[in-house]
């Protein structure tokens, strides 16, 4: 970018790119490399394993950093560089496919996780995939909109999980919970609102942002739309599996845990209530025109994306098609939601997973694959460097120099024997050598 445009300033780079041809090799290279950075930053496949591991931190940290700020930086990078990506449709296809794969892959893993925070962690990875799908199909406003709504309901989910863990004395296994609805009413209702929002059920916030991304996907490829809807259905299913297993049915923990169950203090429940309100109402900032709204967020972001829309105008489906798309997505998610509640409220997953479920529970064995293909070879290589190169090579050379000096000093020491005759002889020999050099060499 610096070599071609002579600047890393957004205005200079985007302005210089507008005069370039579509799919110019330089643009494709720049956008692919920028996207590679975004893949690592925003936990897309195959660079997503760090995010679930980072969930081991306190839930307020997860709520702020991993749900709302840090992981969305990659989304911001691509969205802010929208002109470059619009002029590189090849890269946009890569972005969309990567996002779709990540959304489905992470959602499938979340189906069989039993740690309350792990479910939310893989949900975050999946939702980030949704955002990249929006960027890949040119629905830049929808992707940014989903960043905002996701910040509301995912922060609420993490803080709600923290409230549950607090009540359960640091227990995070949902199989040991159940029936918390009565003892934790505020946590229960706010958690339920967040689950409905992330499932994309109208009129909560997640519905509007997801619908905009799916509408953009439908305009580019029907296959993208079908896979995107599948991701939405999986999201509704695993979130309400989590909800039903945690809050409905009978309590499955110890008697001591049950005796200490209590709602969290106001310092913890007040943020839950505020985030629940934002999760429920935050989507009204971006109600589309087809539903009678003005989409104020789109108008607000218009100066950022207008150049991209001028280069390649978006094709929107007609109103009837949009209604059908909304109904299909929300309807299928609602069916998945009701099925999950009905199935897991009475009979949660208590038995060890088997067959395909075991693969999902073990996260497709991605960690084991990375350990075998990357970690162990690197450790063996490091062991070789340490044992052979470091100890035998570098240490051998350094120690050899020391031994050589030590040996040489011991030999030279023999010259100093205290006999005057030897010293005189050595002086005479040295003078003769100097005379010979003076006479015959110089």
Characteristics:
442 residues, mainly alpha, 20 helices, 73% helix
Give the fraction of residues assigned to helices. Answer: over 70%
**SSE string, helices as H and strands as E:** HHHHHHHHHHHHHHHHHHHH
Number of strands: 0
Principal-axes geometry comes out as extended
Low-confidence stretches: none
Can you walk me through this structure?
With about 450 residues, the protein is mainly alpha-helical. It has two domains: about 1-360, no CATH class; about 375-440, no CATH class. About 75% of the residues lie in helices and about 0% in strands. The chain starts with a helix and ends with a helix.
Task: Give a quick rundown of the structure.
This protein has 442 residues and is mainly α.
């Amino acid at each position: 970018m610096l070599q071609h445009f002579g600047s890393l300033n957004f205005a200079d780079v985007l302005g210089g790119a507008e005069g370039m041809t579509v799919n110019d090799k330089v643009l494709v290279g720049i956008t692919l490399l920028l996207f590679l950075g975004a893949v690592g930053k925003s936990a897309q496949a195959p660079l997503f394993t760090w995010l679930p591991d980072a969930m081991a931190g306190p839930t307020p940290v997860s709520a702020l950093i991993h749900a709302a700020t840090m992981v969305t930086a990659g989304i911001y990078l691509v969205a802010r560089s929208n002109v470059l990506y619009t002029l590189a449709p090849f890269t946009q296809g890569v972005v969309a496919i990567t996002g779709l794969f990540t959304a489905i892959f992470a959602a499938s893993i979340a189906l069989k996780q039993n740690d309350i925070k792990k479910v939310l962690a893989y949900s975050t990875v999946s939702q980030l995939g949704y955002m990249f799908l929006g960027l890949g199909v040119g629905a830049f406003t929808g992707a940014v909109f989903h960043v905002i709504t996701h910040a509301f309901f995912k922060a609420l989910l993490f803080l709600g999980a923290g409230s549950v863990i607090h009540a359960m004395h640091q227990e995070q296994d949902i199989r040991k919970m159940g029936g918390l609805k009565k003892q934790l009413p505020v946590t229960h209702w706010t958690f339920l609102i967040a689950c409905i929002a992330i499932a994309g059920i109208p009129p909560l916030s997640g519905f509007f942002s997801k619908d905009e991304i799916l509408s953009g996907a439908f305009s580019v490829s029907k296959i993208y739309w079908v896979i995107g809807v599948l991701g939405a259905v999986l999201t509704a299913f695993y979130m309400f599996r989590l909800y039903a297993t945690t809050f409905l049915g009978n309590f499955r923990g110890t008697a001591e845990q049950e005796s200490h169950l209590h709602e969290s203090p106001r310092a913890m429940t007040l943020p839950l209530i505020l985030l629940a309100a934002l999760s429920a109402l935050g989507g009204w900032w971006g109600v589309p025109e087809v539903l009678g709204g003005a989409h104020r967020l789109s108008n607000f972001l218009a100066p950022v994306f207008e150049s991209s829309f001028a280069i390649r105008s978006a094709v929107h489906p007609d109103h009837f098609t949009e209604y059908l798309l909304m109904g299909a997505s929300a309807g299928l998610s609602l069916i998945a939601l009701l099925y999950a509640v009905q199935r897991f409220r009475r009979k949660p997953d208590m038995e060890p997973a088997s067959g395909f479920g075991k693969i999902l529970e073990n996260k497709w064995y991605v960690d084991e694959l990375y350990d075998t293909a990357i970690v162990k070879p690197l450790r063996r290589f490091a062991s070789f460097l340490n044992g052979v190169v470091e100890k035998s090579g570098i240490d051998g050379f350094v120690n050899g120099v020391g031994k050589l000096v030590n040996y040489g000093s011991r030999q030279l020491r023999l010259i100093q024997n205290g006999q005057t005759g030897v010293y005189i002889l050595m002086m005479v020999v040295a003078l003769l050598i100097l005379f010979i050099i003076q006479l015959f060499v110089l």
